[in-house]
Design goal:
By secondary structure, the protein is α/β, with parallel strands linked by helices. The protein is built from ten helices and 14 strands. The structure holds NADP nicotinamide-adenine-dinucleotide phosphate. Pfam families: Aldo_ket_red.
């Protein structure tokens, strides 16, 4: 093996064959127009630093670059086998139809130059007419989401060995309950927004009770934020960061880790991606938790459609 790597704790995904371990922190790859670093370079740097878990999606347009970075990491000897990595990608809403799941996964695998995924996720609990990917999705493009049919196809993908685990993203408690009512393979993961200004306690408790691992996205609340950032610009969190000699980002990520929640954080900057791994050898204090409990709560990512859907989050009307 190549470079010295940071030790990143892992969790076992409960609904897989019990052998699949997922590093608790992964590198997000949702593209940002302003980014000066390419996905390929960022992933290579991340592998050098010890990241082994990468979170992609067919909608991000990064699968090819991620695949190229993996090939290069193998050639450079940074990893000795693809099996050392944990690769997630997600099905886009235009493919969220029972007969399109397998072809979409095969296409993603081809683009990633991989034989198998570690985790395949339903990106959103909605379906749009097959075809062109647009963002945001016009409401007029939506068609009824056949959750049961889609999940059967996801299960088939796992049975075929094309993915080691299957899961969902942006599912409410109500939608998870529905899914669990017919799933023969329960979802291993629900990837949802979790950050200090959207702590999702109820959903996290529900997932824990069902053995579903929660993965937090937008942990720094930065990806799609405009204007004031409710965590990175929070004075209380700045005080906590100073008290610990850490950055606000590290406070955010450490809190998520202490919740038993896994996280995908995006940084393409060498220093910041390193900083984001330095959260495992210190802890928050009881008094920090009191302050954290007082942070105003509001969902950042409200949905992928234009206009927004009223019932996307069901009972969670935040
Ligand atoms: P995020 O990870 O909360 O924030 C990313 C932003 O924060 C980037 O602008 C990054 O800039 C900056 N940053 C990273 N580390 C930092 C640090 N230590 N200090 C200061 N700034 C820092 O937001 P996100 O990209 O929205 O979410 C993370 C990942 O979750 C995505 O990339 C994607 O993989 C996934 N996601 C999934 C969904 C879904 O629907 N399933 C939705 C949103 C996101 P630099 O790169 O310049 O450091």
């Amino acid at each position: 093996m190549g470079a010295a790597t940071a030790a990143i704790p892992e969790v076992v995904l409960e609904s897989s064959n019990g052998q699949r371990r997922m590093p608790v922190i992964g590198l997000g790859t949702a593209p940002e127009a302003t980014s000066k670093v390419s996905t390929k370079d960022a992933v290579l740097e991340a592998i050098k630093q010890g990241y082994r878990h990468f979170d992609a999606a067919s909608a991000y347009g990064v699968e090819q670059s991620l695949g190229e970075a993996i090939q290069e990491a193998l050639q450079l000897g940074l990893i000795s086998s693809r099996d050392e990595l944990f690769i997630t990608t997600k099905i886009w809403v235009t493919d969220n139809h029972p007969n399109l799941i397998l072809p979409a996964l095969q296409k993603s695998l081809k683009t990633l130059q991989l034989e198998y995924l570690d985790l395949y996720l339903i990106h959103w609990p909605i379906s749009a007419k097959p075809g062109k990917v647009t963002y945001p999705i016009e409401q007029s493009e939506l068609v009824p989401f056949d959750m049961e049919g889609v999940w059967k196809s996801m299960e088939e993908c796992q049975r075929l060995g094309l993915t080691k685990a299957i899961g969902v993203s942006n599912f409410s408690i109500k939608k998870l309950e529905k899914l669990l009512s017919f799933a023969t393979i329960p979802p291993a993961v629900n990837q949802v927004e979790v950050n200090l200004a959207f702590q999702q306690q109820k959903l996290r408790e529900f997932c824990k009770s069902k053995g579903i691992t929660v993965t937090a996205f937008s942990p720094l609340r930065k990806g799609a934020s405009r204007g004031t950032n409710m965590v990175m610009d929070n004075d209380v969190l700045k005080e906590l960061a100073d008290a610990h000699g850490k950055t606000v980002a590290q406070i955010c990520l450490r809190w998520i880790y202490e919740q038993g929640v896994t996280v995908v954080a995006k940084s393409y900057d060498k220093e910041r991606m390193k900083q984001n791994l330095e959260i495992f050898d210190w802890c928050l204090r009881e008094e920090d938790y009191k302050k954290i409990s007082e942070i105003h709560q509001d969902r950042l990512i409200k949905g992928p459609t234009k206009p927004l859907l009223n019932d996307l989050w069901d009972e969670d009307h935040h």
